[in-house]
Amino acid sequence: MSESTPTASSEQTFKSYSEKQGSTYAQLRPGYHGDLYKLILEHHGATGGGFGSILDVGCGPGVSVGVLAKHFTHAIGLDASEGMISAARSAGGVSASSEPIRFDISTAEDLGRQLSPPVEEGSVDLITASAAAHWFDMDRFWARAALVLKPGGTVALWGGHGRMHPSMPNAAAIQAAFDDMEDRELKPYFEHGNFLSYNLYKDLPLPWTVAEPVDAFDRDSFFRKEYIPGSADLMRNGANKVTLGMAEAALGTASYVQRWREAHPDAVGTEQDVIRRMRRKLEELLHEAGVKEGEETVTMGFAGVLLMVKKRV
Hints:
The chain has helices at residues 19-28, 34-46, 63-68, 82-91, 138-148, 171-186, 192-198, 244-251, 255-263, 274-288, and strands at 53-57, 74-79, 102-105, 124-130, 149-164, 217-227, 240-243, 297-311. It is an alpha/beta fold.
């Protein structure tokens, strides 16, 4: 694992997605819990943030900005992947003023500087990034975000990773088996961003910890909240119960799984595929817990974190 900050080009798996892959990604990954969005909006407003414009960075197929846009006059979604942006445009969405969400291709480091028209400096009230900041070059992101935000504006970043929900039969044993297989077979295909996500952004560079600190942000305003599967604050839409087939497909969207499959093309779609072997272990442990064949389901939770920081007034 590299200890350097990820660069804009370090993540290539999602960047190379087609529109079809982007749409499939949106279908397989459930949206975030409404309470998460409510907390972001309430905290942003209570700390002096306005509701004129929201900019969602690394927006993927547009899931989060599609929800949050309804509270802002203008909304923009940016992603470095042409395929993801195509999927987002197909999904659409409107702001509180019924204006269509603008979706464009841009890196988190440029934040729309190169677009026509560009994202203007001092024009954005809230910058968000869901399950994406761990792929950013944070030194460049924070510097650009400070220019794009209005005084008193907010940056909200959140992410994490899936975990077995404790309500699931034999959840602890299943999670332990998955952790073991992940450590042995998938960790070699982790990139720096994957480790940042799994560590709940504890090592994600902040405006005051980057190589050239960005003084425009107020360190005293820093807000951090962690989410644990099974608590009242689940980050996803509650306990997400899915079929084994859906779980297998969703696990396959992880970037490190895709890199494993690129390294083992002959195993893809066979019983030797790493996710298929995880599924078989899951079935075994569910049967041990008394779940009958044909009645197996997976109940997923989400270990996550929300970070928020304000630009000085």
